[in-house]
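haha ok so turns out i had the wrong file open the whole time. this is the CORRECT one, sorry everyone. sequence first:
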Amino acid sequence: MKQFDVIIIGAGAAGLHCAATAGFRGRKVLLLDNAKKIGRKILISGGGRCNFTNYNIEPSAFLCTNQHFCKSALSRYTQWDFIALVDKYNIAYHEKTLGQLFCDDSAKDIVNMLDAQCRDAGVTTQLRTEITGIEKHQDNFELTTSQGEFSAPSLVIATGGLSMPKLGATSFGYKVAEQFKLKMTDTCAGLVPFTWQNIDKENYECLSGISLPVSITCEDGTNFSEDMLFTHRGLSGPVVLQVSSYWSAGQAIAIDLLPGEDLATQLNAARESNPKQALKTCLSQIFPKRLIERLIELNKLTDLPLKQLSEKDIKSVSDYFHRWIIKPNGTEGYRTAEVTLGGVDTDELSSKTMMAKNVEGLYFIGEVIDVSGWLGGYNFQWAWSSGWACGQAV
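then structure:
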């Protein structure tokens, strides 16, 4: 049985960063994964360019049963620390929107950087390795795998959540937590598109491909503003993904299709300047034409000349666009979700080290924990911060 100081299961963002951090501290580290390559989720993230962090990281942008849990790690390894590492490797990047940082070239740059960090830190990386058993004997964790037996006093679980099973996501990390009697919070898909109710699908699937800036409010008052995309299956786009993490089954959402503006004022002005203009023509200059045509076909709107509309009519039209109510049927689930909400209960873990309070030497980092960030680089920053915090402790 080969002995190490630290064994890390999961060669994703959190696992790679933790391995390098521990390795540079002189720890003898073994990094295991059942995949053929490291960093699979990193490689496809951000459209292949990896939204690796955000200028505006704040604890309030993270969902967790204990809102204070993530503060320690995020404050001790910040976005600026990771940006400095990216700069050290001369990786070109740019801000897209809302503080989101993407590689200019490819997500491979981030994976190659993390791989180089692990090599320089002396980490032993072993892929295509299936874990068939984990036991704790006195001060050591003993692992039985398809590639041999290994032991270490520190075991780090960095296997992620259930999102994107096509990339190999499994419930492995949760099973380890349950094996060692750690509590779990309920899990579900987060940062995920909505699907239509049957009647809405029939009405609106023909609008697939239309995108426009909107503001969406959940029943709990949570609000996000960004682009929304109509799809054959439902609604997507950055704003929908954000809202999905705060939405519960059976709830409706209110969509402002013209955020920051007053449609009634615009319609009244148009009626004054061009009273013979049809409402359809006027609205098609403000919103996507296909959307307006479809709403008229569905008798959601009239097609009268503006001069025939009363103040009440104009207010009714304005209210419709500023508060378009949709009740999603559900979400697309883990298949397309970017994160898993819920996971290992943070009450079971030290917020400073990520170690289980009642199991000496057992650590959990990254998405496997009940910490999920907003869309836009927040979840990667949690991976870097929690991975670093753990790497400093093992």
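The CA atoms of residues 53 and 378 lie 6 Å apart.
again sry for the mixup
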